[in-house]
Amino acid sequence: MPPSGRTDAGALPPAAIALMLLLSAVWGLNMVAVKVTSAGIPPVLQAGLRSTLAALIVPLLCRPLGLRFGDWRRGGTLAAGVLAGALFAVEFIALYIGLSLTTASRAVIFLYGAPFWVALGTHYLVPGDRLTRAKAIGLCIAFGGLVLAFADGLRAPVGPDALLGDLLCLVGGALWAATTVLVKASSLRRAPAALVLQYQLIVSAPLLLLASPLLGEAWVIDPQPLVVGAFLYQAAGIAGASYLAWFWLVSRHSASRLAAFSVLTPVFGVLAGALLLGESLGVGFLLAVMLVALGLWLVNRPAG
């Protein structure tokens, strides 16, 4: 039985759906933030510095919210926490290398196959979070809407290493899913969300900072105000507040239903790009959003 206050089975309550919509919008804007920050900080170094700063910020966020950390020396969470942090680091390394080899549209499609991996993992490893027919159909429809939203970009010419880039982005999505399933299927499920997040930040920070020079990145930072602002948004808003909220949700609700909402993230990213960077929207974008919404409704229908 899940601990008191945790309701893993059944459809997501309205409050959880509202929070996931907010998180998807925040993560969608993060795509723009990463792009802006990359103009002044190399990507893997950026991820390492983000984890480092977020690890310092999270305790400051927890105090006013009354969130506790628990004791990492008890509860048997250390091994699972270290593994989660390692998965988190390798996910970003695979994603950033993949992005450099393939197009952004193709990267999005392969990365956001993650909800399928989460649904399969929880089906076999997490009691009460089964992959029903309605959930499977909903995931397919939502993913179809995502493909439609990026259809124009998928037709763009690609380089000779695009297939390798696609594969790395697929691996990144699978590792993202593996981390989510690990949190639900291991002792981390009983740990406070703040402790789960700190494991990932503290373990991933040195791994990412070590990987940066090994991947040939020059540690040269151009601290333009826009770059610094976008980086702080990532560290405090994304790796700090939003991930803390995400792990709080994962500890209490169906991981597969929550993960399905992540397909909205690139949709919000497109909208953010249109509003902030002046990027154009494809003709089928509205239809794509409708398909995603329909798919999410099917995923979140109560099992009957």
TrEMBL record:
Keywords: Membrane, Transmembrane, Transmembrane helix. It is found in: Membrane. PANTHER family: EAMA DOMAIN-CONTAINING PROTEIN, INNER MEMBRANE TRANSPORTER. It holds the Pfam family EamA. InterPro entries: AA-Vitamin_Transporters, EamA_dom, EmrE-like. Its main location: membrane. It comes from the Bacteria. It is a multi-pass membrane protein. The chain crosses the membrane at residues 12-32, 78-101, 107-126, 133-151, 163-183, 195-214, 226-246, 258-277, 283-299. This is DMT family transporter. Residues 16-150, 164-300 form the EamA domain. Belongs to the EamA transporter family. The keyword Transmembrane applies. One of its GO terms (cellular component) is membrane. The keyword Transmembrane helix applies. The lineage of its organism: Bacteria, Pseudomonadati, Pseudomonadota, Alphaproteobacteria, Acetobacterales.
